Amino acid sequence: MNAPVFEPPAGWSQSLYTGAPGAALLRLEQARTGRAAWSIAHSWTRALTADQVVGDLSASLEFGAPAVAFVLQAAGNPAYASALTLLDRHITEVTRQRLDVAHDRIDRGALPERAEFDLIRGLTGIGVYLLRRYGGGAELRDVLTYLVRLTEPVSVDGDLLPGWWATDSPNHGQPAPPGGHGNLGIAHGITGPLALLALAARRSVVVTDHEAAIVRILAFLDQWQQDNGSHAWWPGLLARADLTTGRLRHHEAARPSWCYGTPGIARAQQLAGLALDDHSRTRSAETALEGCVTDPAQLARISDATLCHGWAGLLQTTWRAALDAGGSPLHEHVAALQNRLDGHLAAHGCPEGAALLEGATGVELAVLTTAATVPPETCWDACLLLDG
């Protein structure tokens, strides 16, 4: 893929999921595996600082200092050591500020917006960077402590709601639903914090009530699991009416996507099972994913090749789950998914643009990664909370 010839939109140089940082990850993975020259990778990393790097309260894994630092850390190259040290000062400050705002909101008994806690724009995403960068540390522990508080129920107008029940709209540009909503997806919902808590626990980074928070999230997912075994699935979104009645108004599985569907939700539960040494939980999550990737009705709902909600995301999620699944049949389904992605690309071509989530970059990374038998050198899919 050649460097873009278009005029980059504002923020493109610092947007991990839609801009230059995501594209740089591909070049770094190619350089670290000997598939491309480091000079090409360096030319892309230079694009990350074309504008002044943002380090204010809007900074997140998606945008600004954490996004740029995630890529430079993934490079594993001493050439970026001084830049990372400088960026980390900004990330420490913004983490502290964002935590103060979040704890103040909890202390007031108010509900959050997704951007406070989610993977893409929230503290979960910043925690992903801190875990990859340091494997621990005070800032990461403070993020985990906040996520534990996030799982505690909140009383609102006489109703007991999950602490992560969101007040904003799940759909950009549309009004927020009355009564808020519950988001179960790994990109914007509670399974993002679940995956981070699990990944930290697997690295022996735990805080007070860490396991209890994981168990609370799992209990909520169990409550909203539809069907059983290989037919199990979870809704991506819940309305207040669903919560009030205890049952779904719209009983239809979401498309099998990384972002909102059963694949991402099942992978987070698999990681939680591994963290808790709960073999039953791990196996049930793997069984649900196996059923998803072999269900023609669910697969028919995939209409593109992207990481976010297409074949590449389903493939990458299944491949990662299979690495941790031991003798699970998941391994047998990876090749079939690779063929489905190849067939889609042959018929429709690669997505336009260099975006990681919804462009060609993510597809290329998934193809490159899943053709191997070992995790990627850059661990680029940590930004999807898929790494083990």
What would you note in describing this structure?
The model is unreliable at 1-7 (pLDDT under 50). The protein has 16 helices and four strands. The radius of gyration is 20 Å and the shape is globular. A hairpin with a 2-residue loop joins β1 and β2 (159-161). It has 388 residues and is mainly α. The strands form two sheets. Strands 1-2 form a two-stranded antiparallel sheet.
Topology readout:
Elements: H1 20-32, H2 38-47, H3 65-75, H4 81-107, H5 114-117, H6 123-134, H7 138-150, E1 154-156, E2 159-161, E3 181-183, H8 191-202, H9 210-224, E4 237-239, H10 240-245, H11 262-276, H12 279-293, H13 296-299, H14 311-323, H15 330-348, H16 360-370
Antiparallel strand pairs: 1-2, 3-4
Class inferred from helices and paired strands: mainly alpha
Number of strands: 4
State the helical fraction.
40-55%
Task: State the end-to-end distance.
Answer: 29 Å
Largest sheet: 2 strands, antiparallel
Please give the count of helices: 16
Strand order of the largest sheet: 1-2
Mean pLDDT metric: 94
Summary tags:
two-stranded antiparallel ribbon; single chain; disordered N terminus; 52% helix; 388 residues; mainly alpha; two-stranded antiparallel sheet
Briefly say what this structure is.
With 388 residues, the protein is mainly alpha-helical.
